[in-house]
């Protein structure tokens, strides 16, 4: 059995804090200060985004940047979904108004790598079960924990940033892909939701205890969020199952808040159902309008996110073989009208139009907007 | 000598005009009418874009869709630049307020293909010179005309669309790439600007005469625009050299309006100069701010368009090897601040951030806006 692991080792950026402004943009050293020393913030796109931390002109990258139990053919949706989802969970606890986002600075590459490895004689801190020697899909101990990621949330006081809280994401597999021999066939051990979630919750307690041993993390709130990875053949990423907010000093998780999030791919596969048939038919009407537009449009699909039975948003993908530039312009205008007419309102939606040459145009609408804004990628 | 030619043959869409509204959005059948018959318009993104024509639920694609003398390794920038540039030239004559855009319906695939071929015994209408038998780069007759494209501009009256004018783009090579034998090495015949332009202007007269022979085109204004293709190794497309507006009925071009447009790639190559050193240093400051942000940012370049010495706009491209999703979010916020601070104001600018996985985020600002809007491509 051979698993690939990706390390992107980075020189640890010294944690030196110099003058930095308040969160109000007037006094803040935001974005592109020419000063090469000191701390700056990235600037904020919208009120619902965190600003990020820049140190001495460089973005403060994570101390465990890029560490994960990478599958041979990973589902890239999981990566985006896990990281941006961790920020979304964090927003429930650390408001974007009062907190600044910093990539995790306390768990190092080595630490995280050891944690997501199997427990063994040489790796006493491994959070995945020791191998039981079996290579049978149903008898072996699978790799439950696929990734652990830290995000720091900073507060500002007297022109200094200090740690205000930490969020730790624990990503648990729904399918553990493994090989019996190097370069051999890939086998699968399925991990059902309840088993994976229970395992991750047990691990969460251990992680919390270990983090509390670091003096900087002793007295800050630590949010732990459990994410279930989608399988490699999924056209959408996984989702968060639960999170817990652990007050300063606590060393065991007292309670979990369940997150009833689920992702769907539209059009819905036959034999499966979605939480809301109105959304399905809205998308289906949109799709048939759009598919007729060109002689050779090849696909209209969407990722839809639900919380319970309520649609949270959609990412629509439209792919085709050939477009001329004027066709893209006209098509994008048409999409703007058709999307407003057919797609569900009141939720954020974006639409990406791609050809074999890459992204050609895109449209987006926030939850509160009525009209889609659009952009056609052009060239001089 | 072997040249590849691309035909994308399409069934000719019947030219049946049914009820269609006025240009005011209130009375217009815009975008996504469920009616499968009749004419609709695509809807308009902004006042400065033309609406397009939809017939019986399908986009009215060009009758000569995809015809061009395709080079073995064409410069894809030329294609986008030629087509959207033709629309820009057209806007000088046919206002977006009073005219609707329709892909060319009068020149067929066969017609255009014959015109852009060499003149020969079997092709009396060829607008490229007959072969003189030579394969020497300096002695052979090169292929001057690379592409000819038609765009139709429609007016609305009494709920009917009728042809209000036509724009014809003639794309002339700056370099003619040719092979002496099939699958052999590629050779180049350079065509200097004056020679190419003179040849294209001669061809323009012939094209005008031929178009006037079609009854539908006899009595409409015909704009002819001459485009000079960039070489295949260019990181930017070509540009329009001149255009002429030919009143209804005229059969020879009386006068040309020169267009002093030029494209540059930033950073400027050593040994070349740009029309405005302020823009060069603005970009250079932006670039160095941005390149320091990540440990492994790989490139910041831009396409800049000038009219005379005046900057018309910029397309900035930023590429890198690796980003996590939270890094993209922070980087995009940083770009928003840095771009506003450093990049030239008063012109449209967009910035595309790509990794090996494709486009990750993008930012845009119109000529009149101060702040950039941004979008990070995400996934559930």
UniProtKB/TrEMBL annotation, chains A, B:
Protein name per its UniProtKB record: CamS family sex pheromone protein
Disordered as annotated region, ranges: 27-50
Highest taxon of source: Bacteria
Skewed-composition ranges (Low complexity): 27-37
Signal peptide start and end residues: 1-18
Organism: Candidatus Levilactobacillus faecigallinarum
Chain intervals with Polar residues compositional bias: 38-47
Gene3D superfamilies: sex pheromone staph- cam373 precursor domain
InterPro entries: CamS (IPR011426)
Keyword entries, A-Z: Signal
Coiled coil (residue ranges): none
